[in-house]
Structures are given as structure tokens and as C-alpha cells.
Design goal:
single chain; alpha+beta; 3 helices; 7 strands; 27% helix; globular; disordered C terminus
Length: 194
């Protein structure tokens, strides 16, 4: 009982240590070196493309009034945050059909004929239409396709709109280690053949 006054101090020291020494990158499935630009230099839909390798961010333009910013990060999952800024939007364009078309076009421009996108494309468009109709603008919504999660937010202002789509992909990997490795560092149990 007389050492109870030490508990807050110990907790504070533990939290400070965790903040100063985050989990090492060695436990991550997605390494920073794996994160490459999503937009290839040969992509005809984009121009003024810039890639920042330190922040894993790229910026490109579809036209003078549509700017795309893509940020990537990851450890156990790969997060891709795609933001389309519609810098000039007329009142007649402020409808869900317009935003739906912009997202579908953007996904086509970014992923084109990639096998990943071709496999999920019809389900992605169905789910997007369903949730966009249900939630509308200025409300974050999410839906899942297989082991991927999609988060979408359409922010609408007077003459401006921004569409943010975050794709969270679970990266399947398995590291089975030998006995003596702590359980929290191992992805599966090692069983010695008898």
C-alpha cells in the first residue's frame, strides 16, 4: 500500500518510453521501401506529377480544376488515401451522380486494367452507389470488399468539393518462427513434428 504513489509515475514512464520508441519496423509486413508511386509516368490521364519519397505522397492533375493527392503508409495493412480536389464546381454539378462518376473515373484512371481492380470493380461500384445514396455528402461512410476496407467522404462547399477515398488493404503474410520467440512476435504456432 505504501508504494501506491509510484504507480502513476511508472505508468507515465512507460507511456513516455512507448512514444519515444515506437514499434520497430521489423514487425511490419508493409515496408516503407515497398511503397512506390501509384501513378506511373506513362499514365496519360495525369500531368504535373510529383512524388515525395520521404512522405510517400504524390500530387498530380487531371485538369486545372481537378487535383489528386495520394498518401501511402502501412505496417500490417497498406493504407492508400486518395483525395480528389474539385477546385471549381457549378451548382448543377452538385449531385450524387456527378460525385459517383468522378470516383469511378478516378479509380479507372489510377488502376486501369490492374488485376486487383478488375476483380473488385463491379462490387466496388455497387457498394459505392449503395452507400453514397444512403449517406450522401459531408458524411464519412465505409464498406468492405473481401479483406479490403474503403472509407469515403465527400466534402461539399459553395464552389468547391473534395472527395477522399481511403483504401485499407490487409497484407497477407505469415511468419512462423521457431520455439523461444515471444508469442506476440509470431504470426502462428510452431509445432515440432513428433
Amino acid at each position: 500500500m505504501r508504494y501506491l504513489f509510484l504507480i502513476p509515475w511508472l505508468l507515465q514512464a512507460q507511456i513516455k518510453t512507448l512514444v519515444q520508441n515506437p514499434v520497430e519496423n521489423r514487425n511490419c509486413v508493409v515496408k516503407e521501401s515497398m511503397l512506390q508511386p501509384l501513378i506511373s509516368e506513362e499514365n496519360p490521364f495525369f500531368y504535373a506529377h510529383q512524388w515525395n519519397d520521404e512522405t510517400k505522397t504524390e500530387i498530380a492533375k487531371l485538369d486545372p480544376f481537378r487535383v489528386v493527392t495520394i498518401e501511402q503508409r502501412g505496417c500490417k495493412r497498406h493504407h492508400t488515401v486518395i483525395r480528389l480536389d474539385l477546385l471549381k464546381i457549378t451548382p448543377s454539378e452538385k449531385n450524387l451522380q456527378f460525385y459517383l462518376e468522378q470516383i469511378i473515373l478516378l479509380m479507372h484512371y489510377l488502376y486501369g486494367e490492374s488485376i486487383y481492380y478488375l476483380q473488385i470493380r463491379s462490387r466496388f461500384e455497387e457498394q459505392l452507389l449503395r452507400y453514397l445514396s444512403l449517406y450522401g455528402v459531408n458524411t464519412l461512410f465505409q464498406f468492405d470488399i473481401d479483406s479490403d476496407t474503403f472509407l469515403c467522404l465527400i466534402e461539399e462547399k459553395d464552389t468547391y468539393a473534395a472527395i477522399t477515398l481511403e483504401i485499407v488493404r490487409y497484407v497477407h503474410a505469415q511468419r512462423v518462427q521457431m520455439p523461444g520467440v515471444a508469442d506476440y512476435e509470431d504470426d502462428a504456432w510452431y509445432h515440432k513434428a513428433e
